[in-house]
């Protein structure tokens, strides 16, 4: 992608040698105006997401600075602001991107592939989140409870080729940011609900909320559907509550502080 920017404007032109991002053909121009640190952070999120979609990994700070047309110092400030608002996870003590939900930049048990590439997902929900972000059909490969037989299925048009697979969330949303990797990494898919109790007992994890595949896809679409847009904004607790209520989720579990 080529970007031309002043202190107040970032003009996103196109990726070099890249395929189109769903909803944003590479031939189009997207103009975003940076008025304050919040706008800067959200537009860095957009650039990071576009790079992840097109390249399968996060840009380093030099590349991101070039894409944004900003100095290294401005880019680092924007990244750390985005980290503080939980829009990205940086490696401790650095400006290196560790994870950009729903994309993982280290190998995981969840591999998502589509016509334009392949990506690791942080967890089962994030694997559906990548499908929602791309707005295209994908194939997802994982293991039964991340330890058993391989599970492979497709997701397209809001439906799955394996509607029977339940998704288990051991920890409620109020605890997701105690440690962003532990709760997220424990959100898994199982071949049947009967497998979940045994898995929890073996690994010392609580039995939390179990969603059927259709509900899990609906949650991913509502949560991640705008992640590839320059209009992305981090969900507020009110936004999250509205989504949980739309899906009829148990508010005893599905609530934020």
Sheet bearing the most strands, described?
A: 8 strands, antiparallel
CATH architecture of the largest domain: 2-Layer Sandwich
Side by side, the strands of the main sheet go 4-5-6-8-7-9-10-11
Q: Which parts are unreliable, with pLDDT below 50 for 5 consecutive residues or more?
A: 1-35
The level 1 CATH classification of the largest domain is: Alpha Beta
> Helical content, roughly?
25-40%
| Average pLDDT over all residues | 87
Strand content: 15-25%
Number of helices: 8
- Taken from the alpha-carbon principal axes, the silhouette is globular
What is the CATH T-level topology of the largest domain? Beta-Lactamase
Structural class of the secondary elements? alpha+beta
| Secondary-structure element pattern, one letter each | EEEHHHEEEEEHEEEEHEHEHH
Number of domains: 2
The tally of strands reads 14
Report Rg. 18 Å
N/C terminus separation: 39 Å
Key features?
8 helices, disordered N terminus, Beta-Lactamase, 257 residues, alpha+beta, single chain
What's this entry about, in short?
The chain has 257 residues and is of the alpha+beta class.
How is the topology of this model organized?
Blueprint lengths: L1 E4 L3 E6 L15 E4 L3 H19 L5 H8 L3 H13 L4 E2 L6 E4 L2 E2 L5 E5 L2 E5 L2 H11 L3 E6 L6 E7 L2 E2 L6 E3 L12 H4 L2 E2 L4 H10 L5 E3 L1 H12 L12 H10 L11
Antiparallel strand pairs: 1-2, 2-3, 4-5, 5-6, 6-8, 7-8, 7-9, 9-10, 10-11, 12-13, 12-14
């Amino acid at each position: 992608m080529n970007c031309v920017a002043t202190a107040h404007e970032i003009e996103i032109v196109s990726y070099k040698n890249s395929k189109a991002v769903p909803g944003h053909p590479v031939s189009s121009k997207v103009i975003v105006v940076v008025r304050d640190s919040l706008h800067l952070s959200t537009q860095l999120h957009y650039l990071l997401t576009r790079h992840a979609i097109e390249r399968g990994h996060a840009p380093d700070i030099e590349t991101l600075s070039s894409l944004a047309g900003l100095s290294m110092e401005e880019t680092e400030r924007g990244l750390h602001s985005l980290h503080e608002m939980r829009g990205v996870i940086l490696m401790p003590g650095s400006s290196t991107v560790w994870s950009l939900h729903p994309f993982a930049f280290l190998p995981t048990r969840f591999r998502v592939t589509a016509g334009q590439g392949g990506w690791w997902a942080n967890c089962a929900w994030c694997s559906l989140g990548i499908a929602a972000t791309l707005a295209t059909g994908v194939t997802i490969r994982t293991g039964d409870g991340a330890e058993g037989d391989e599970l492979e299925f497709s997701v397209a048009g809001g439906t799955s080729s394996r509607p029977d697979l339940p998704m288990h969330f051991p920890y409620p949303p109020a605890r997701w940011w105690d440690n962003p990797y532990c709760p997220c990494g424990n959100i898994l898919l199982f071949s049947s609900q009967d497998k979940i109790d045994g898995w929890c007992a073996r690994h010392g994890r609580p039995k939390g909320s179990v969603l059927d595949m259709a509900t899990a896809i609906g949650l991913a679409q509502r949560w991640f559907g705008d992640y590839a847009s320059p209009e992305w904004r981090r969900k507020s607790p009110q936004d999250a509550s509205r989504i949980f209520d739309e899906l009829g989720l148990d508010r005893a579990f599905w609530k934020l502080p």
